[in-house]
Design goal:
Rossmann fold; elongated; disordered N terminus; binds nicotinamide-adenine-dinucleotide
Amino acid sequence: MTDRHPEHQVPLADLLEDRLRSGTARVVVVGLGYVGLSLAVGLARNGLVVHGVEVELERAALVNAGRSYIDDVDSRELAALVAAGRLGASTRFDAAREADAIVICVPTPLRKSKDPDISFILSATESLVPLLRPGQLVVLESTTYPGTTEEVLQPRLEARGFTVGDDVFLAFSPERVDPGNTSFTTANIPKVVGGVTPRCTRLAAALYRNVTASVHPVSSPKVAETAKLLENTFRSVNIALANELALACRAIDVDPWEVIGAAATKPFGFMPFYPGPGTGGHCIPLDPLYLSWKLRLNGFETRFIALADEINHSMPRHVVSLVADALNDRGQALRGARVLVLGVTYKANVNDVRESPALEVLHMLADKGAAVAYADPFVPQLEVGALKLVAEPLTRDVLAAVDCAVVITDHTSFDYALIAEAAPAVVDVRNAMGPLRARHRNIVTL
Ligand SMILES: NC(=O)c1ccc[n+]([C@@H]2O[C@H](COP(=O)([O-])OP(=O)(O)OC[C@H]3O[C@@H](n4cnc5c(N)ncnc54)[C@H](O)[C@@H]3O)[C@@H](O)[C@H]2O)c1
Protein backbone atom coordinates (compact mmCIF):
# COMPACT_ATOMS: atom_id res chain seq x y z
CA MET A 1 0.00 0.00 0.00
CA THR A 2 1.26 3.50 -0.79
CA ASP A 3 1.47 6.37 1.68
CA ARG A 4 -1.34 8.63 0.54
CA HIS A 5 -1.29 11.99 2.17
CA PRO A 6 -3.28 14.78 0.56
CA GLU A 7 -1.87 18.22 1.36
CA HIS A 8 -4.76 19.18 3.64
CA GLN A 9 -4.12 16.15 5.83
CA VAL A 10 -0.41 16.68 6.43
CA PRO A 11 -0.84 19.05 9.39
CA LEU A 12 -2.95 16.37 11.13
CA ALA A 13 -0.10 13.87 11.08
CA ASP A 14 2.44 16.59 11.88
CA LEU A 15 0.45 17.72 14.87
CA LEU A 16 0.22 14.16 16.14
CA GLU A 17 3.94 13.61 15.56
CA ASP A 18 4.75 16.81 17.48
CA ARG A 19 2.69 15.65 20.44
CA LEU A 20 4.24 12.19 20.37
CA ARG A 21 7.77 13.58 20.10
CA SER A 22 7.32 16.24 22.76
CA GLY A 23 5.76 13.77 25.20
CA THR A 24 2.54 15.75 25.42
CA ALA A 25 0.39 13.07 23.78
CA ARG A 26 -2.57 11.49 25.58
CA VAL A 27 -2.52 7.73 25.27
CA VAL A 28 -5.20 5.12 25.87
CA VAL A 29 -4.02 1.60 26.63
CA VAL A 30 -6.70 -1.05 26.12
CA GLY A 31 -6.22 -4.10 28.36
CA LEU A 32 -4.30 -3.56 31.62
CA GLY A 33 -2.67 -6.95 32.08
CA TYR A 34 1.00 -7.91 32.21
CA VAL A 35 1.69 -6.05 28.97
CA GLY A 36 -0.77 -3.17 29.13
CA LEU A 37 -0.17 -2.09 32.72
CA SER A 38 3.62 -2.19 32.29
CA LEU A 39 3.33 -0.10 29.11
CA ALA A 40 0.88 2.36 30.68
CA VAL A 41 3.24 2.92 33.62
CA GLY A 42 6.24 3.20 31.26
CA LEU A 43 4.51 5.90 29.18
CA ALA A 44 3.19 7.80 32.22
CA ARG A 45 6.63 7.62 33.88
CA ASN A 46 7.98 9.47 30.86
CA GLY A 47 5.47 12.28 31.18
CA LEU A 48 2.59 11.20 28.94
CA VAL A 49 -0.97 11.25 30.20
CA VAL A 50 -2.27 7.70 30.04
CA HIS A 51 -5.73 6.25 30.51
CA GLY A 52 -6.25 2.53 30.74
CA VAL A 53 -9.39 0.81 29.52
CA GLU A 54 -9.88 -2.49 31.29
CA VAL A 55 -13.00 -4.68 31.13
CA GLU A 56 -12.39 -6.09 34.60
CA LEU A 57 -13.88 -3.55 37.01
CA GLU A 58 -11.71 -4.77 39.89
CA ARG A 59 -8.49 -4.20 37.93
CA ALA A 60 -9.53 -0.68 36.88
CA ALA A 61 -10.38 0.11 40.52
CA LEU A 62 -7.04 -1.22 41.73
CA VAL A 63 -5.17 0.96 39.24
CA ASN A 64 -7.09 4.03 40.38
CA ALA A 65 -6.29 3.09 43.99
CA GLY A 66 -2.60 2.91 43.04
CA ARG A 67 -2.41 -0.80 43.80
CA SER A 68 -0.57 -3.01 41.36
CA TYR A 69 -1.65 -6.60 40.65
CA ILE A 70 1.28 -7.24 38.29
CA ASP A 71 4.58 -8.34 39.85
CA ASP A 72 6.74 -6.18 37.59
CA VAL A 73 4.75 -3.01 38.32
CA ASP A 74 5.61 -1.30 41.58
CA SER A 75 2.57 -0.08 43.56
CA ARG A 76 4.45 2.98 44.88
CA GLU A 77 5.25 4.15 41.36
CA LEU A 78 1.72 3.38 40.18
CA ALA A 79 0.22 5.33 43.09
CA ALA A 80 2.51 8.31 42.43
CA LEU A 81 1.52 8.41 38.75
CA VAL A 82 -2.18 8.18 39.63
CA ALA A 83 -1.79 10.94 42.25
CA ALA A 84 0.02 13.14 39.70
CA GLY A 85 -2.94 12.75 37.30
CA ARG A 86 -0.79 11.01 34.70
CA LEU A 87 -2.49 7.60 34.93
CA GLY A 88 -6.06 6.47 35.45
CA ALA A 89 -8.32 3.64 34.38
CA SER A 90 -11.93 2.81 33.68
CA THR A 91 -14.03 0.08 32.16
CA ARG A 92 -15.38 2.49 29.55
CA PHE A 93 -13.81 3.39 26.23
CA ASP A 94 -14.85 7.10 26.30
CA ALA A 95 -11.28 8.34 26.84
CA ALA A 96 -10.44 7.00 23.37
CA ARG A 97 -12.26 10.01 21.86
CA GLU A 98 -9.69 12.42 23.26
CA ALA A 99 -6.62 10.21 22.87
CA ASP A 100 -3.81 10.91 20.43
CA ALA A 101 -2.71 7.28 20.44
CA ILE A 102 -4.50 4.05 21.37
CA VAL A 103 -2.57 0.87 22.08
CA ILE A 104 -4.38 -2.49 22.20
CA CYS A 105 -2.91 -5.06 24.62
CA VAL A 106 -5.71 -7.63 24.99
CA PRO A 107 -5.21 -11.40 25.29
CA THR A 108 -4.77 -13.66 22.26
CA PRO A 109 -5.43 -17.22 23.47
CA LEU A 110 -6.00 -20.39 21.47
CA ARG A 111 -9.33 -22.09 20.94
CA LYS A 112 -9.77 -25.69 22.13
CA SER A 113 -9.00 -26.66 18.52
CA LYS A 114 -5.63 -24.85 18.95
CA ASP A 115 -6.64 -22.25 16.35
CA PRO A 116 -6.07 -18.54 17.11
CA ASP A 117 -8.77 -16.85 19.16
CA ILE A 118 -8.70 -13.16 18.25
CA SER A 119 -12.13 -12.47 19.77
CA PHE A 120 -10.61 -10.06 22.36
CA ILE A 121 -8.99 -8.03 19.55
CA LEU A 122 -12.30 -8.00 17.68
CA SER A 123 -14.26 -6.92 20.72
CA ALA A 124 -11.80 -4.14 21.62
CA THR A 125 -11.79 -2.93 18.00
CA GLU A 126 -15.60 -2.88 17.87
CA SER A 127 -15.71 -0.76 21.02
CA LEU A 128 -13.05 1.62 19.71
CA VAL A 129 -14.03 2.20 16.11
CA PRO A 130 -17.19 4.29 16.73
CA LEU A 131 -15.14 6.63 18.97
CA LEU A 132 -12.23 7.26 16.60
CA ARG A 133 -11.62 10.67 15.04
CA PRO A 134 -9.17 11.88 12.42
CA GLY A 135 -5.61 12.39 13.60
CA GLN A 136 -5.31 9.35 15.87
CA LEU A 137 -2.77 6.55 15.95
CA VAL A 138 -3.91 2.98 16.71
CA VAL A 139 -1.29 0.36 17.57
CA LEU A 140 -1.93 -3.34 18.11
CA GLU A 141 0.50 -4.97 20.57
CA SER A 142 -1.26 -8.30 21.15
CA THR A 143 0.72 -11.18 19.70
CA THR A 144 -1.17 -12.45 16.67
CA TYR A 145 -0.90 -14.12 13.27
CA PRO A 146 0.69 -12.31 10.31
CA GLY A 147 -1.91 -10.17 8.56
CA THR A 148 -4.16 -9.39 11.55
CA THR A 149 -3.48 -5.63 11.53
CA GLU A 150 -4.17 -5.18 7.81
CA GLU A 151 -6.82 -7.89 7.37
CA VAL A 152 -8.80 -7.39 10.57
CA LEU A 153 -8.20 -3.90 11.96
CA GLN A 154 -7.65 -1.85 8.83
CA PRO A 155 -10.95 -2.80 7.11
CA ARG A 156 -12.87 -2.02 10.30
CA LEU A 157 -11.27 1.44 10.51
CA GLU A 158 -11.88 2.06 6.83
CA ALA A 159 -15.52 0.93 7.08
CA ARG A 160 -16.02 4.05 9.19
CA GLY A 161 -14.79 6.17 6.30
CA PHE A 162 -11.19 6.68 7.40
CA THR A 163 -8.25 6.18 5.08
CA VAL A 164 -5.45 4.56 7.01
CA GLY A 165 -2.24 6.55 6.49
CA ASP A 166 -4.17 9.72 5.64
CA ASP A 167 -6.47 10.54 8.51
CA VAL A 168 -5.94 7.71 10.95
CA PHE A 169 -2.71 5.82 11.45
CA LEU A 170 -2.33 2.11 12.17
CA ALA A 171 0.64 -0.02 13.17
CA PHE A 172 1.64 -3.27 14.84
CA SER A 173 4.33 -3.34 17.51
CA PRO A 174 4.98 -6.61 19.30
CA GLU A 175 5.48 -6.73 23.03
CA ARG A 176 8.63 -8.51 24.20
CA VAL A 177 8.38 -8.03 27.96
CA ASP A 178 9.76 -10.96 29.97
CA PRO A 179 7.92 -11.10 33.33
CA GLY A 180 10.29 -11.24 36.29
CA ASN A 181 13.31 -10.14 34.24
CA THR A 182 14.80 -7.10 35.97
CA SER A 183 17.69 -6.67 33.49
CA PHE A 184 15.43 -6.24 30.46
CA THR A 185 12.28 -4.14 30.83
CA THR A 186 10.11 -1.96 28.59
CA ALA A 187 12.74 0.77 29.10
CA ASN A 188 15.61 -1.08 27.40
CA ILE A 189 14.07 -3.75 25.18
CA PRO A 190 14.19 -2.50 21.55
CA LYS A 191 10.74 -2.07 20.02
CA VAL A 192 9.92 -3.36 16.53
CA VAL A 193 7.36 -1.18 14.76
CA GLY A 194 5.59 -1.82 11.45
CA GLY A 195 2.97 0.63 10.16
CA VAL A 196 0.47 0.18 7.34
CA THR A 197 2.17 3.12 5.62
CA PRO A 198 5.59 4.72 6.22
CA ARG A 199 3.89 7.59 8.00
CA CYS A 200 2.08 5.15 10.32
CA THR A 201 5.47 3.57 11.12
CA ARG A 202 7.02 6.97 11.82
CA LEU A 203 4.21 7.95 14.18
CA ALA A 204 4.27 4.62 16.04
CA ALA A 205 8.06 4.90 16.36
CA ALA A 206 7.63 8.41 17.82
CA LEU A 207 5.20 6.99 20.40
CA TYR A 208 7.57 4.25 21.54
CA ARG A 209 10.61 6.53 21.71
CA ASN A 210 8.91 7.85 24.83
CA VAL A 211 9.53 4.51 26.57
CA THR A 212 12.58 2.98 24.95
CA ALA A 213 15.76 4.33 23.40
CA SER A 214 15.74 1.78 20.60
CA VAL A 215 13.00 1.49 17.99
CA HIS A 216 13.42 -0.79 14.98
CA PRO A 217 11.06 0.18 12.13
CA VAL A 218 10.10 -2.51 9.59
CA SER A 219 8.33 -2.21 6.26
CA SER A 220 4.88 -3.50 7.27
CA PRO A 221 2.75 -4.72 10.19
CA LYS A 222 3.05 -8.24 8.75
CA VAL A 223 6.84 -8.22 9.15
CA ALA A 224 6.47 -7.06 12.77
CA GLU A 225 3.77 -9.70 13.45
CA THR A 226 5.93 -12.45 11.94
CA ALA A 227 9.09 -11.30 13.75
CA LYS A 228 7.35 -11.71 17.11
CA LEU A 229 6.20 -15.21 16.19
CA LEU A 230 9.70 -16.12 15.00
CA GLU A 231 11.15 -15.05 18.37
CA ASN A 232 8.85 -17.33 20.32
CA THR A 233 9.00 -20.17 17.78
CA PHE A 234 12.80 -20.03 18.14
CA ARG A 235 12.38 -20.53 21.89
CA SER A 236 9.80 -23.30 21.53
CA VAL A 237 11.91 -25.24 19.01
CA ASN A 238 15.10 -24.92 21.05
CA ILE A 239 13.37 -25.92 24.29
CA ALA A 240 11.99 -28.95 22.43
CA LEU A 241 15.52 -29.78 21.23
CA ALA A 242 16.77 -29.57 24.83
CA ASN A 243 13.87 -31.79 25.97
CA GLU A 244 14.62 -34.36 23.28
CA LEU A 245 18.31 -34.23 24.18
CA ALA A 246 17.43 -34.93 27.82
CA LEU A 247 15.47 -38.04 26.83
CA ALA A 248 18.25 -39.13 24.45
CA CYS A 249 20.90 -38.65 27.14
CA ARG A 250 19.08 -41.11 29.40
CA ALA A 251 19.37 -43.70 26.62
CA ILE A 252 23.17 -43.33 26.55
CA ASP A 253 23.57 -42.70 30.28
CA VAL A 254 25.01 -39.19 30.20
CA ASP A 255 23.83 -36.21 32.21
CA PRO A 256 22.05 -33.73 29.87
CA TRP A 257 22.77 -30.80 32.19
CA GLU A 258 26.47 -31.53 32.12
CA VAL A 259 26.36 -31.85 28.32
CA ILE A 260 24.59 -28.50 27.91
CA GLY A 261 26.93 -26.83 30.41
CA ALA A 262 29.93 -28.05 28.44
CA ALA A 263 28.50 -26.99 25.06
CA ALA A 264 27.64 -23.56 26.49
CA THR A 265 31.33 -22.81 27.02
CA LYS A 266 31.57 -22.28 23.24
CA PRO A 267 31.68 -18.49 22.96
CA PHE A 268 29.95 -18.33 19.58
CA GLY A 269 27.36 -20.26 17.57
CA PHE A 270 25.71 -21.92 20.58
CA MET A 271 23.05 -20.62 22.93
CA PRO A 272 22.06 -22.85 25.85
CA PHE A 273 18.43 -23.92 26.26
CA TYR A 274 17.40 -26.23 29.06
CA PRO A 275 15.03 -29.17 29.32
CA GLY A 276 12.13 -29.18 31.76
CA PRO A 277 8.51 -30.21 32.32
CA GLY A 278 7.29 -28.54 29.07
CA THR A 279 6.54 -24.94 28.16
CA GLY A 280 4.07 -22.60 29.83
CA GLY A 281 2.92 -19.01 30.09
CA HIS A 282 0.84 -16.96 27.70
CA CYS A 283 3.43 -16.95 24.91
CA ILE A 284 5.73 -19.89 24.11
CA PRO A 285 3.10 -22.67 23.96
CA LEU A 286 0.67 -20.50 21.97
CA ASP A 287 2.46 -18.11 19.65
CA PRO A 288 4.05 -20.66 17.27
CA LEU A 289 0.57 -22.08 16.65
CA TYR A 290 -0.60 -18.64 15.50
CA LEU A 291 2.12 -18.80 12.86
CA SER A 292 1.48 -22.40 11.78
CA TRP A 293 -2.28 -21.73 11.54
CA LYS A 294 -1.77 -18.80 9.16
CA LEU A 295 0.79 -20.70 7.11
CA ARG A 296 -1.51 -23.73 6.81
CA LEU A 297 -4.19 -21.43 5.36
CA ASN A 298 -1.58 -20.54 2.77
CA GLY A 299 -0.76 -24.15 1.96
CA PHE A 300 2.44 -24.38 3.99
CA GLU A 301 3.02 -26.91 6.78
CA THR A 302 5.52 -25.82 9.45
CA ARG A 303 7.06 -29.11 10.55
CA PHE A 304 9.45 -27.66 13.14
CA ILE A 305 6.55 -25.96 14.96
CA ALA A 306 4.45 -29.15 14.97
CA LEU A 307 7.34 -31.31 16.21
CA ALA A 308 8.34 -28.82 18.93
CA ASP A 309 4.73 -28.59 20.11
CA GLU A 310 4.48 -32.39 20.22
CA ILE A 311 7.76 -32.85 22.16
CA ASN A 312 7.09 -30.03 24.62
CA HIS A 313 3.56 -31.31 25.27
CA SER A 314 4.86 -34.83 25.89
CA MET A 315 7.03 -33.69 28.82
CA PRO A 316 4.39 -33.64 31.61
CA ARG A 317 3.63 -37.31 30.85
CA HIS A 318 7.34 -38.05 31.02
CA VAL A 319 7.55 -36.28 34.39
CA VAL A 320 4.70 -38.47 35.69
CA SER A 321 6.52 -41.60 34.47
CA LEU A 322 9.67 -40.45 36.35
CA VAL A 323 7.58 -40.10 39.53
CA ALA A 324 6.12 -43.58 38.97
CA ASP A 325 9.66 -44.99 38.46
CA ALA A 326 10.96 -43.25 41.60
CA LEU A 327 8.10 -44.72 43.63
CA ASN A 328 8.54 -48.11 42.00
CA ASP A 329 12.20 -48.14 43.06
CA ARG A 330 10.92 -47.83 46.61
CA GLY A 331 8.36 -50.61 46.09
CA GLN A 332 5.44 -48.21 45.90
CA ALA A 333 2.68 -47.64 43.35
CA LEU A 334 1.59 -44.24 42.10
CA ARG A 335 -1.96 -45.07 43.15
CA GLY A 336 -2.30 -44.01 46.77
CA ALA A 337 1.15 -42.38 46.91
CA ARG A 338 1.44 -38.88 48.40
CA VAL A 339 3.13 -36.64 45.81
CA LEU A 340 4.15 -33.05 46.52
CA VAL A 341 4.63 -30.80 43.48
CA LEU A 342 7.17 -28.04 44.18
CA GLY A 343 6.46 -24.94 42.11
CA VAL A 344 3.35 -24.61 39.97
CA THR A 345 4.07 -21.42 38.01
CA TYR A 346 5.28 -21.68 34.43
CA LYS A 347 8.71 -20.31 35.33
CA ALA A 348 10.72 -19.43 38.41
CA ASN A 349 9.97 -16.46 40.66
CA VAL A 350 6.73 -15.30 39.00
CA ASN A 351 3.11 -15.86 40.09
CA ASP A 352 1.69 -16.81 36.67
CA VAL A 353 0.24 -20.33 36.32
CA ARG A 354 -1.19 -19.86 32.83
CA GLU A 355 -0.48 -22.94 30.68
CA SER A 356 1.93 -24.13 33.37
CA PRO A 357 2.98 -27.76 32.79
CA ALA A 358 2.66 -28.24 36.58
CA LEU A 359 -1.12 -28.16 36.19
CA GLU A 360 -1.03 -31.04 33.75
CA VAL A 361 1.38 -32.98 35.95
CA LEU A 362 -0.94 -32.49 38.95
CA HIS A 363 -3.94 -33.50 36.88
CA MET A 364 -2.28 -36.66 35.55
CA LEU A 365 -0.93 -37.67 38.96
CA ALA A 366 -4.38 -37.26 40.53
CA ASP A 367 -5.94 -39.12 37.61
CA LYS A 368 -3.67 -42.06 38.33
CA GLY A 369 -4.76 -42.14 41.96
CA ALA A 370 -1.94 -40.23 43.67
CA ALA A 371 -2.82 -37.96 46.60
CA VAL A 372 -1.42 -34.67 45.30
CA ALA A 373 -0.39 -31.50 47.11
CA TYR A 374 1.80 -28.57 46.14
CA ALA A 375 4.05 -25.90 47.61
CA ASP A 376 4.61 -22.56 45.92
CA PRO A 377 5.34 -19.27 47.68
CA PHE A 378 3.79 -17.36 44.76
CA VAL A 379 0.49 -19.26 44.52
CA PRO A 380 -1.56 -19.57 47.74
CA GLN A 381 -4.44 -21.51 46.13
CA LEU A 382 -4.86 -23.49 42.96
CA GLU A 383 -7.68 -25.07 41.00
CA VAL A 384 -6.87 -27.84 38.55
CA GLY A 385 -10.09 -29.20 37.05
CA ALA A 386 -12.08 -30.51 40.03
CA LEU A 387 -9.04 -30.33 42.34
CA LYS A 388 -9.05 -27.41 44.76
CA LEU A 389 -5.69 -27.16 46.50
CA VAL A 390 -4.15 -24.87 49.10
CA ALA A 391 -0.36 -24.42 49.12
CA GLU A 392 1.53 -26.46 51.72
CA PRO A 393 4.31 -24.78 53.69
CA LEU A 394 7.68 -26.20 52.66
CA THR A 395 8.69 -27.61 56.04
CA ARG A 396 10.69 -30.67 57.05
CA ASP A 397 7.49 -32.29 58.39
CA VAL A 398 5.54 -31.72 55.17
CA LEU A 399 8.42 -33.12 53.07
CA ALA A 400 8.90 -36.12 55.34
CA ALA A 401 5.20 -36.95 55.16
CA VAL A 402 5.12 -37.39 51.35
CA ASP A 403 6.32 -40.33 49.28
CA CYS A 404 7.80 -38.24 46.50
CA ALA A 405 8.47 -34.54 45.83
CA VAL A 406 8.69 -33.23 42.25
CA VAL A 407 10.51 -29.98 41.48
CA ILE A 408 8.60 -28.52 38.54
CA THR A 409 9.51 -24.84 39.00
CA ASP A 410 12.92 -23.84 40.35
CA HIS A 411 11.92 -20.91 42.56
CA THR A 412 15.00 -19.32 44.14
CA SER A 413 13.44 -19.26 47.59
CA PHE A 414 13.00 -23.06 47.86
CA ASP A 415 15.36 -24.64 50.38
CA TYR A 416 16.79 -27.35 48.13
CA ALA A 417 19.10 -28.76 50.80
CA LEU A 418 16.06 -29.30 53.03
CA ILE A 419 14.13 -30.93 50.17
CA ALA A 420 17.06 -33.29 49.48
CA GLU A 421 17.35 -34.23 53.15
CA ALA A 422 13.70 -34.52 54.14
CA ALA A 423 11.82 -35.95 51.14
CA PRO A 424 12.12 -39.74 50.73
CA ALA A 425 12.28 -39.43 46.92
CA VAL A 426 12.77 -36.37 44.72
CA VAL A 427 12.25 -35.92 40.97
CA ASP A 428 13.98 -32.69 39.94
CA VAL A 429 13.14 -31.83 36.34
CA ARG A 430 14.88 -28.41 36.42
CA ASN A 431 18.27 -29.46 37.76
CA ALA A 432 17.62 -27.10 40.65
CA MET A 433 19.43 -29.56 42.93
CA GLY A 434 22.37 -30.30 40.63
CA PRO A 435 25.27 -30.33 43.13
CA LEU A 436 23.12 -32.07 45.77
CA ARG A 437 22.55 -35.07 43.50
CA ALA A 438 26.06 -36.42 44.14
CA ARG A 439 25.39 -36.65 47.88
CA HIS A 440 21.71 -37.60 47.91
CA ARG A 441 20.81 -40.82 46.14
CA ASN A 442 17.08 -40.08 46.55
CA ILE A 443 17.16 -37.44 43.76
CA VAL A 444 16.52 -38.30 40.11
CA THR A 445 16.39 -35.89 37.19
CA LEU A 446 15.29 -35.86 33.56
N1 LIG B 1 2.55 -11.74 29.37
C1 LIG B 1 3.63 -11.66 28.62
O1 LIG B 1 4.73 -11.93 29.09
C2 LIG B 1 3.56 -11.23 27.17
C3 LIG B 1 4.76 -10.94 26.51
C4 LIG B 1 4.71 -10.55 25.19
C5 LIG B 1 3.48 -10.46 24.54
N2 LIG B 1 2.32 -10.76 25.20
C6 LIG B 1 1.07 -10.63 24.45
O2 LIG B 1 0.41 -9.44 24.88
C7 LIG B 1 -1.01 -9.62 24.86
C8 LIG B 1 -1.57 -9.34 26.25
O3 LIG B 1 -1.02 -10.31 27.13
P1 LIG B 1 -1.07 -10.14 28.70
O4 LIG B 1 -0.17 -11.18 29.26
O5 LIG B 1 -0.91 -8.71 29.08
O6 LIG B 1 -2.60 -10.58 28.97
P2 LIG B 1 -3.43 -10.36 30.32
O7 LIG B 1 -4.49 -11.39 30.30
O8 LIG B 1 -2.49 -10.29 31.48
O9 LIG B 1 -4.06 -8.93 30.16
C9 LIG B 1 -5.01 -8.61 29.21
C10 LIG B 1 -6.01 -7.68 29.85
O10 LIG B 1 -6.92 -7.27 28.84
C11 LIG B 1 -8.21 -7.17 29.43
N3 LIG B 1 -9.20 -7.19 28.35
C12 LIG B 1 -9.67 -8.24 27.65
N4 LIG B 1 -10.53 -7.84 26.71
C13 LIG B 1 -10.60 -6.49 26.81
C14 LIG B 1 -11.33 -5.49 26.10
N5 LIG B 1 -12.14 -5.81 25.09
N6 LIG B 1 -11.18 -4.22 26.49
C15 LIG B 1 -10.37 -3.89 27.52
N7 LIG B 1 -9.66 -4.79 28.23
C16 LIG B 1 -9.76 -6.07 27.86
C17 LIG B 1 -8.24 -8.35 30.36
O11 LIG B 1 -9.25 -8.21 31.36
C18 LIG B 1 -6.83 -8.33 30.94
O12 LIG B 1 -6.74 -7.56 32.12
C19 LIG B 1 -1.23 -11.04 24.37
O13 LIG B 1 -1.42 -11.02 22.99
C20 LIG B 1 0.07 -11.73 24.70
O14 LIG B 1 0.32 -12.83 23.85
C21 LIG B 1 2.35 -11.13 26.51
